[in-house]
Specification:
Shape of chain B: globular
Largest sheet of chain A: 10 strands, mixed
CATH topology of the largest domain in chain A: Alkaline Phosphatase, subunit A
Largest sheet of chain B: 12 strands, mixed
Strand order of the largest sheet of chain B: 7-8-9-10-11-1-2-3-4-5-6-12
Oligomer: heterodimer
CATH architecture of the largest domain in chain A: 3-Layer(aba) Sandwich
Strand content of chain B: 35-45%
Number of strands of chain A: 17
Helix content of chain A: 25-40%
Number of helices of chain A: 14
Helix content of chain B: 10-25%
Number of helices of chain B: 7
CATH superfamily of the largest domain in chain A: Alkaline Phosphatase, subunit A
Strand order of the largest sheet of chain A: 5-6-4-3-7-1-8-16-2-17
Radius of gyration of chain B: 19 Å
Structural class of chain A: alpha/beta
Largest interface: A-B, 43 and 40 residues
């Protein structure tokens, strides 16, 4: 198996490497520190010159989507990961930043300057722009269209459906509910992203809810792997949840969709906790459904034991990297190849809550998942694409010194204490342009939605240690009930067959067309 | 020592605590400040593992449900909109909703009794109540406690010109109280929304209402 080309990524590792035998040598600065920078840059160019476009047809395509993972999120997560490893941080690279090809993605939708996840995800997997809330249907459908026949007339075929039609295996892995917008666009067609179970459907609706459509897809063509959260959308409201026995499912129609899913295909298995997941033998499992929480799975921070307390999760659940690895093991059995979408769905939730800590640690978890995928696949036959559906109003501000804690106060070079703003108070490097604003909560994940917003400045020196903790919510300028998405472009990182077709600034729906071309569809 | 003995007895196999009778307690809350006053009425429903607090003004219901292992689930129920917002266990702390079952079921929590000074007994709301006085969190506090119900008959708190009084005004027990709980059928008929999704449901009129117009504001619990 070939190794993934680290192309421009080598810069981080070779700051001290001496380049040799290049024309750059003559111009190398005499100052050793300057020389190191200079030579590192030259080395990257030298390496990149050896990168040739991979014109082969892709056997496999893996699409990673960091929900809400704008460029500032990538930068901050890169620094945080480096600092968690005891480094200064800025020189670090997340796994997907080592992919050789990068482009920018324009994320507006057919009717939104700044989009939600449904039309942006539809763009990526179906090749078209559509309206807010739309799950793989075109822009001419009403968001609340409840007629199945009308909805069917607006449906657009997805890359997953095309892959299945050609005999490839397919999979969906997410930290959100598997019926949430980004995973749903692969297999469902519906005007309203919120219609995840029949509990959410309006009266008189004939269109099937998203969870039911997943089972219909299973019966029709068979998705090989579905891993994530959202168990309550599959269980009837008369059946107790296996992990939380006081709770029941959401479904009113009495259907046990997880059982129907298993019954639809031989060799199928359903798991809902870590132990069951670990026990799955990919060699003997042709189809795997894993639903590890009633709703979204835990943030990566909360999945782990915390502050000396056990994990907040009762039954345990796999990390995004573990789910990705298991999915690839199952999908790789198909010699024709596979298509897999992996979503880090809770980066978005962390940002909406104004809790940068969780948004960034979930971004790092996605980087780990990409690393897992890279270690299990061959860049000569597998196209890996890593991108975001949209950005968030998350900023990295001030002039902090090199190695300054990314979640801390701004401290400028040659200063011993935090830089003070004109109000005489320090300020954090990362903050939000809008949202609920400052707070310190015992658990930082989902903020105190519904409480009065606290925009503006709240910090004083006594809170020095608090700002870096998991419960801290950064300051925000404009008071809103929740922090919002942002409209600037997001990055596309890619490697493997046809990855060089990601060039310049592209419409988001172009991602689908590159994947389709790579697969030879 | 007695407490340890009781706990040890309850821990013996085959011995379980007697189920508490369902209870419905109506409370009047009065808050007075400098030239202002506010009144509210709450209905507290309590059974072994479920507590509901109905805000009689808004119609919004808070519902806590305790699992066998002690884990609490919390729902905010909006009967007029036929919606339920579901909070997952970690959400309770981030949303600053109490996850202390003792506080949930007794309103004040029983540890406050140890922080106040006993001040005799009185009859309140038709029950014998032990009176306590003292200062809690810097606020002058007077508490009338009905030990047999494990509920306050009256809580008076005073800080400067600000006064707050919570008064038990009516009580039902048994079947009459049990009938007042939100039924499983009612809950199943309502649309369920995850608290974690509120930040991502812009444009939803119901979410807009609860996020921007006080629909998620907490009461005194």
């Amino acid at each position: 198996m070939h190794r993934w080309n680290l192309a421009g990524a080598l810069a981080s590792a070779i700051v001290t490497v001496i380049a040799s035998g290049t024309s750059a040598q003559a111009a190398t600065p005499s100052n050793p520190k300057a020389a190191a920078w200079y030579q590192a840059g030259a080395q990257v160019v030298s390496t990149n010159q050896r990168v040739n476009p991979n014109e082969r047809k892709a056997k496999n395509v893996i699409l990673f989507v960091g929900d809400g993972m704008g460029v500032s999120t990538v930068t901050a997560a890169r620094i945080l990961e480096g600092q968690l490893r005891g480094k200064m941080g800025e020189e670090n690279l997340l796994a997907f930043e080592r992919l050789p090809h990068v482009a920018l993605s324009k994320t507006y939708s057919a009717n939104q300057q700044t989009s939600d996840s449904a039309p942006t995800a539809t763009a990526m997997v179906a090749g078209i722009k559509t309206n807010d809330g739309a799950i793989s249907v075109d822009e001419d459908i009403d968001r609340n269209e409840k007629d199945a026949a009308i909805t069917s007339g607006h449906a657009v075929q997805t890359i997953l459906e095309q892959a299945e039609a050609r005999g490839l295996s397919t999979g969906i892995v997410t930290t959100a509910r598997v019926t949430h917008a980004t995973p749903a666009v692969n297999y469902a067609h519906i005007g309203n992203r919120d219609w995840e179970s029949d509990n959410n459907l309006p009266a008189g609706a004939t269109v099937k809810d998203i969870a039911a459509q997943l089972v219909e897809a299973q019966k029709k063509y068979g998705i090989e792997v579905v891993l994530g959260g959202g168990r309550s959308q599959f269980y009837p409201n008369t059946v107790r949840d296996p992990e939380y026995p006081s709770r029941v499912g959401n479904r009113r129609d009495g259907r046990k969709l997880h059982e129907e899913w298993v019954a639809a295909r031989p060799g199928s298995a359903y798991v809902w906790n870590q132990a069951q997941f670990n026990a799955i033998n990919p060699a003997r499992t042709s189809h795997l459904l894993g639903l590890f929480e009633r709703s979204h799975v835990q943030y990566e921070e909360d999945r782990q034991p915390f502050d000396g307390q056990p994990s907040r999760d009762v039954a345990g659940e796999p990390s995004l990297a573990e789910m990705t690895g298991k999915a690839i093991e199952i999908l790789q059995k198909n010699q024709k190849g596979f298509y897999l979408m992996v979503e880090a769905g809770r980066i978005d939730h962390g940002h909406h809550a104004g809790n940068a800590f969780r948004a960034l640690t979930d971004t790092i978890a996605m980087s780990d998942a990409v690393q897992t995928a890279m270690s299990m696949t061959d860049p000569s036959d597998t196209l890996i694409v890593v991108t975001a559906d949209h950005s968030h109003v998350f900023t990295i501000a001030g002039y902090p010194k090199r190695g300054n804690p990314i979640l801390g106060f701004v401290t400028e070079p040659n200063r011993s204490g935090p830089t003070l703003a004109l109000d005489g108070l320090p300020y954090t490097t990362v903050s939000y342009a809008n949202g609920q604003g400052f707070d310190v909560l015992p658990v930082g994940g989902d903020t105190n939605y519904g409480a009065s917003a606290r925009p503006g400045r709240f910090l004083d020196l006594s809170m020095m240690d608090v700002v870096k903790t998991q419960g801290f919510h950064q300051e925000a300028l404009v008071p809103l009930s929740a922090e919002t998405h942002a409209g600037e472009d997001v990055a596309i990182y890619a490697g493997g067959p046809k990855a060089h077709l990601f060039q310049g600034t592209m419409e988001q729906n172009t991602i689908y067309h590159v994947m389709k071309t790579a697969l030879g569809f | 020592m007695i407490r340890l003995l009781v706990l040890a007895f309850l821990a013996l196999p085959g011995v379980t605590a007697q189920a508490a009778e369902p209870l419905a307690a109506t409370y009047q809350l009065t808050m007075r400040g400098a030239g202002t006053s506010h009144h509210a009425q709450f209905l507290l429903l309590r059974s072994d593992d479920v507590v509901e607090v109905h805000d009689e003004h808004t119609g919004v219901i808070e519902r806590w449900e305790r699992e066998a292992g002690g884990r609490l689930f919390y729902q905010r129920i909006f009967p007029d909109a036929q919606k339920v917002i579901e909070f997952q266990p970690p959400d309770l702390r981030s949303a600053q909703v109490t996850d202390d079952w003792d506080v949930v079921r007794t309103v004040t929590g029983t540890p406050v009794l140890d922080q106040l000074e006993p001040w005799g007994n009185r009859r309140m709301a038709g029950h014998r109540a032990a009176v306590y006085r003292g200062t809690l969190d810097g606020v002058s506090t007077k508490l009338g406690w009905i030990a047999e119900l494990q509920l306050p008959a009256r809580v008076e708190r005073r800080l400067g010109d600000d006064r707050q009084e919570l008064r038990l005004t009516a009580l039902e027990q048994g079947e009459a109280a049990a009938m007042r709980f939100t039924t499983r059928e009612q809950l199943q008929a309502y649309e369920s929304i995850d608290f974690a999704d509120l930040g991502d449901r812009h444009g939803d009129p119901f979410v807009d209402r609860v996020m921007n117009h006080g629909g998620l504001q907490l009461h005194t619990h």
